[in-house]
UniProtKB/TrEMBL annotation:
<protein>
    <recommendedName>
        <fullName>Threonine synthase</fullName>
        <ecNumber>4.2.3.1</ecNumber>
    </recommendedName>
</protein>
<keyword id="KW-0791">Threonine biosynthesis</keyword>
<keyword id="KW-0456">Lyase</keyword>
<dbReference type="Pfam" id="PF00291">
    <property type="entry name" value="PALP"/>
</dbReference>
<dbReference type="GO" id="GO:0009088">
    <property type="term" value="P:threonine biosynthetic process"/>
</dbReference>
<dbReference type="InterPro" id="IPR037158">
    <property type="entry name" value="Thr_synth_N_sf"/>
</dbReference>
<dbReference type="GO" id="GO:0030170">
    <property type="term" value="F:pyridoxal phosphate binding"/>
</dbReference>
<dbReference type="InterPro" id="IPR004450">
    <property type="entry name" value="Thr_synthase-like"/>
</dbReference>
<comment type="similarity">
    <text>Belongs to the threonine synthase family.</text>
</comment>
<dbReference type="Pfam" id="PF24857">
    <property type="entry name" value="THR4_C"/>
</dbReference>
<dbReference type="Pfam" id="PF14821">
    <property type="entry name" value="Thr_synth_N"/>
</dbReference>
<dbReference type="InterPro" id="IPR051166">
    <property type="entry name" value="Threonine_Synthase"/>
</dbReference>
<feature type="domain" description="Threonine synthase N-terminal">
    <location>
        <begin position="5"/>
        <end position="84"/>
    </location>
</feature>
<feature type="domain" description="Tryptophan synthase beta chain-like PALP">
    <location>
        <begin position="93"/>
        <end position="346"/>
    </location>
</feature>
<dbReference type="InterPro" id="IPR029144">
    <property type="entry name" value="Thr_synth_N"/>
</dbReference>
<comment type="function">
    <text>Catalyzes the gamma-elimination of phosphate from L-phosphohomoserine and the beta-addition of water to produce L-threonine.</text>
</comment>
<dbReference type="InterPro" id="IPR036052">
    <property type="entry name" value="TrpB-like_PALP_sf"/>
</dbReference>
């Protein structure tokens, strides 16, 4: 069983515990943590799992990656139960079957029923509880001044910030500071973040761009003195616990679509490759998935890589209708590259794979790209396919599905989900095989991306954003008091002094 973790870049065999991998986030050699071995399950276990609730399934999966000496079974069960009690759906991630009205075998996996209406909640609700659990255990019986604390500092251009805040609000010994560019995130996203009243949460509205915010956060991480004083942590998308928590819905959705066996393709709107990577682990564990389809917007580094073998950062990020996927490079892709290197070039040798990955990333840093052998792409294509979707295709997909859906009528996709559904329809045409079930992942509620949805649907006379899209819970946010700290210069010293000051007020 695999309950220890190694780095994707290490040339040493040394490993970390689950707790170390989660709290540390990134390995000291710059690599990402992966399990020393992927646990596998047989068809008998699949049969048994196919009848479990989401929570019980999450427990069975996580148990294979976390030693019960680190987290006893009863504690893990309790953590899972608490993490998913905040979801509005009993299924946690329900599958909307045959929702487009056009293809009986196209299903939409709704991942947006958590507190912030986006898929990141599935992981971050769990990660928040996990952080608190590890801290409480370390701090047991310690006097106040010796308690270990974590100060989470992050920059957001939208979804990640609110999901992190809702994951960590009210958690003991944890402070959260989220920076965002003033006036450059959507009103709903700002309301979601700034109306959280918990004392341990502070949003910082920074006069500047998202890049300014991100640079400040990077500088804070690099500031040794500040770091030691506040124990600065991140909950960014490379954290192993996020990938682990996301595996559950691949199994659960598969079982809901076809039971214990059947042909399934997953289509995943992708940016940093965290979501679809969880599907890769599910497949390698033994879930019989035909293919995982990467759906990208115009920021298409992943699609280009699979078609050309060249992993190349473009000069500029394109601002698309699906902003949560606007990335230059995909941070989690390094994990897949490690498996591709091991299985294709390194004869299964772990240490050799780490060396190859290190070389690729040295090249990427120096030249902005690296090229892999065609054999590596052949290996990748055994598990993956890819589709690139333009802005205009995104809009027309929202329109089409609204017009054709019958049960429920007028189903409304958010633009990220629309990228996935557009890619799914292309796949259905290409494959021309009605025995395949397509599960298209829906990563956000449409209310979060009002402009894109309104642009697509305003020509329908009966359509109304207020009536058809906006949930009462989100509508209410605009009436709540906002807690915002304005930072009128994008300046690291200024941000550090504000964090110092606010930490005092929080009593941390
Ligand atoms: C983060 C996010 C994505 C992309 O997920 P990755 O794990 O980065 O590939 C897609 N859609 C929405 C709405 C998101 O918030």
């Amino acid at each position: 069983m695999s309950t220890s973790y190694r780095s994707t870049r290490s040339s040493e065999q040394s490993t970390k515990t689950f707790e170390e991998a989660v709290i540390q986030g990134l390995a000291t050699d710059g690599g990402l943590f992966i399990p020393s071995e992927i646990p596998t399950i047989d068809q008998k276990i699949i049969e048994r799992w196919s009848k479990l609730s989401f929570q019980d399934l999450a427990f069975e999966i996580m148990k294979l990656y976390i030693s019960d000496k680190e987290i006893p079974d009863s504690d893990l069960k309790e953590l899972i139960k608490r993490s998913y009690s905040t979801f509005r759906s009993e299924d946690v991630t329900p599958l909307a079957k045959n929702v487009t009205g056009e293809h009986e075998n196209l299903h939409v996996l709704e991942l947006f029923h958590g507190p912030t209406y986006a898929f990141k909640d599935v992981a971050l609700q769990f990660v928040g509880n996990l952080f608190e659990y590890f801290l409480q255990r370390a701090n047991k019986d310690l006097p106040q001044e010796q308690r270990k604390k974590i100060t989470v500092v992050g920059a957001t251009s939208g979804d990640t910030g609110s999901a992190a805040i809702y994951g960590l609000r009210g958690k003991k010994d944890v402070a959260v500071f989220i920076l965002y560019p003033t006036g450059r995130i959507s009103p709903i996203q700002e309301e979601q973040m700034t109306t959280v009243g918990d004392k341990n949460v502070q949003t910082l509205s920074v006069k500047g761009t998202f890049d300014n915010c991100q640079d400040i956060v990077k500088a804070i991480f690099g500031d040794k003195e500040f770091n030691e004083r506040h124990n600065v942590g991140a909950v960014n998308s490379i954290n192993w616990a996020r990938i682990l928590a996301q595996m559950t819905y691949y199994f659960y959705a598969y079982f809901q679509a076809v039971g214990a066996s059947g042909k399934v393709k997953f289509v995943v709107p992708s940016g940093n490759f965290g979501d679809i990577l969880a599907g890769y682990y599910a497949k390698k564990m033994g879930l019989s998935v035909e293919k995982l389809v990467i759906a990208t917007n115009e920021n298409d580094i992943l699609d280009r890589f699979l078609k050309s073998g060249v992993y190349e950062r473009s000069d500029d990020v394109a601002a698309t209708l699906s902003p949560a996927m606007d990335i230059l490079i995909s941070s989690n892709f390094e994990r897949l590259l490690w498996y591709l290197a091991r299985d294709t070039l390194a004869n299964g040798n772990d240490l050799e794979a780490g060396k190859i990955v290190r070389e690729w990333f040295t090249e990427l840093k120096a030249d902005g790209k690296f090229v892999v052998d065609s054999a590596v792409i052949q290996t990748a294509l055994k598990d993956f396919e890819s589709e690139r979707v333009s802005n205009s295709e995104t809009t027309s997909t929202i329109k089409e599905v609204y017009a054709t859906s019958k049960s429920p009528k007028n189903y409304i996709l958010d633009p990220h989900t629309a990228v996935g559904v557009c890619a799914t329809k292309r796949q259905i045409l290409k494959d021309n095989d009605s025995s395949i079930n397509y599960i298209s992942l829906s990563t956000a509620h449409p209310a979060k991306f009002a402009d894109a949805v309104n642009e697509a649907l305003s020509s329908f006379p009966e359509y109304s954003f207020e009536k058809d899209v906006l949930p009462a819970e989100l509508k209410k946010l605009s009436t709540l008091e906002k807690k915002i700290k304005l930072v009128d210069r994008a300046d690291i010293e200024l941000v550090k002094s504000i964090i110092d000051e606010e930490m005092q007020k929080m009593g941390l």
